[in-house]
Known about the structure:
Layout: E1 17-19, E2 22-25, E3 34-38, E4 41-45, E5 49-51, E6 63-66, H1 73-84, E7 88-91, E8 101-105, E9 111-115, E10 136-137, H2 142-146, H3 151-160
Parallel strand pairs: 6-7, 7-10
Antiparallel strand pairs: 1-5, 2-4, 3-4, 8-9
Amino acid sequence: MPPKEMVRTPHLTETPKHVVEENLVKPENPERGYFEVMGDHYLLSSPAHITQPEPDCYHGKVAILINAKCASACEDFVEPFKDSHRATIIGETPQGSSGQPFYYEFGNGMSVGIGAKLLTFPDGSRFEGVGIAPDIELKPTVDDLSKARDPVMEKAVELVK
């Protein structure tokens, strides 16, 4: 099986990539793909496909700003840039969440959400609960915020000049 990766952005990445997604699905909602039984759910792996870059993709410098609130589609967007080294990622490590939770209600006012989309980085390493490490770790301080300074944005502007 080819390496697992998240959705690619063909207008900004310069190399073709394999894309595979995995989701937990209930047996009554089957979709096309490969299934493994996991309790009362199946693990669905959709067939891999290759996303080719657009011929007129942007070749200039790219900086992406992230923080601890980045999750789900945000991380889906950032990961290809990290994997391909196409952009410099600046900020804080995000949540490490696919944003595809399986919710269970206990019936006593309590519930739990467990990540149900089993994404990994292209090298097979764990994604859920880990997140994407920024290339430059930078977090605004209380002093920065009180002075209306954004050191993350300032660093990004400096890098793309």
